[in-house]
Amino acid sequence: MRWFYLLIAVALFGVPCVIAEIVTPEEAAKLVGEEVELHGSVFAVSWSNGEAGKRTQYLNFGDAFPRQVFTVQFRPDLIPGGELLPNLAKREVRIKGMVETGKYGSRIMVQDAAQIEVMPVDETLALDEEGRTRGDSKHIRAVWGQILVNEEFKRIEEEAVRLQRDQPRLRDGLWVVDQFFEGLDAPCEILVDRWERMFDRLDRWDKAYPRSSTATMVRGSALIHYAWEARGDGYAPTVTQTGWRRFEERLEDARQILMRVPEKDRTPYFYSQLVTLAMGQGWEHEKIRPYIEECMERWPDYPVVHFAECYRLLPRWAGEEGEWEAYLDEVTAEDTPLCRERYARTVWAQSGFYKNNIFKEAKVDWARTKAGFEVMRERYPQSWRNLNAFAKFAAMADDKETAVEMTRLITGHEDMDFWVSWSNYTHFKEWVDAP
């Protein structure tokens, strides 16, 4: 096939030239030393734990690490104008580059973001024939991001009304409104000037719908993303003066914009973004608390505002040791199914901010977490993701009986978006199977 393309080039131009062949990830793995154009679906995405600003992103094809058939590596600090890629899990991509042998198999090392092209999303993965939501969270975010890039503002406005009215959930209990707005406020574009294009697009949305609260919320939350991108994900001493200045300016712009949204038009996502804004601007708890209470009064079973507040109260940001746990105890004081589920979901959300084991490193209780997972199991019996999480947290709490039971249920339905790699799942399974 490669000779076929070469012959065409000779026939057309009179001289040989190198034209990358379009190949699958499985085919690319066998073409070490050759320039290819890989076309495939990203199975899972992971990041290295390098020092601040030098994290490497890995796009794994065919399976999760270390059972992937091919890997694409991307380190933005080595690329002029480079930014972290959006989460491309489950997205179809085309990537041009030289295939080489890496430590864990064949790979392409991306030297320029222009090497990566994100393919259009099949809307039927996320929306049915009547435009109603189905599918998983990644597909929903991808589809609505694509709809915004295509500037289909009328569709967005109509969906916003429907979500506000119906408040639909995914099979694991996540709120669709979050996936909708997350797709809109950071669409999957791999462009050096993507933020300039984003805000130009929002200007056209404002002209088409000058009184749109949805457009206002998207602009405000996009500015929050833009601000944190200027700051970077490193510790405070690693942030440049320019980074701090842009961070503060963009957050203040976001605050002024979000405050224009009338209370009647505010969505649950508005409140979680406001807490993130409060963290960046250093608000005291007393200043953000009325907004959290407003959200709880309108949507008592919306958990993400509590995730955001507990994250804000971590010692790395605005809190003291034990403060976020005390807040969680306060908002889950009643022994109701709602509070039990809220407790478990928040522990789950916070667990990623602890190095090894949240039950050993934070003041949280496994019995209460387990009770919350039991509520989720009853409310969302079709969610494999929740069962995968139940299994992992049982292992972290040394509750082998529960871990064995959950492992029996999830076998054949292991969620690699949750486990990240087969190595993680294998270590867990070894512990479960040990006598």
Can you give a write-up of this model?
The chain is of the alpha+beta class. The chain is built from 19 helices and seven strands. Strands 2-3-4-6-5 form a five-stranded mixed β-barrel. β1, α2 and β2 form a beta-alpha-beta unit. α3 packs across α5. The longest helix is centred in the middle third of the chain and has 19 residues. The chain is globular. The termini are far apart. The N terminus is likely disordered.
**Total number of beta strands:** 7
Q: Per DSSP, what share of the residues sits in E-state strands of 2 or more residues?
A: 5-15%
The whole-number mean of residue pLDDT values reads 89
Largest sheet: 5 strands, mixed, barrel
**Major sheet: order of its strands?**
2-3-4-6-5
Distance between the termini: 53 Å
pLDDT < 50 runs, ≥5 residues: 1-18
The number of helical elements comes to 19
| SSE order, one letter for each helix or strand | HEHEEEEEEHHHHHHHHHHHHHHHHH
Radius of gyration based on Cα positions: 23 Å
Shape: globular
User: Which structural class is indicated by helix and strand composition?
Assistant: alpha+beta
Helix content estimate: 40-55%
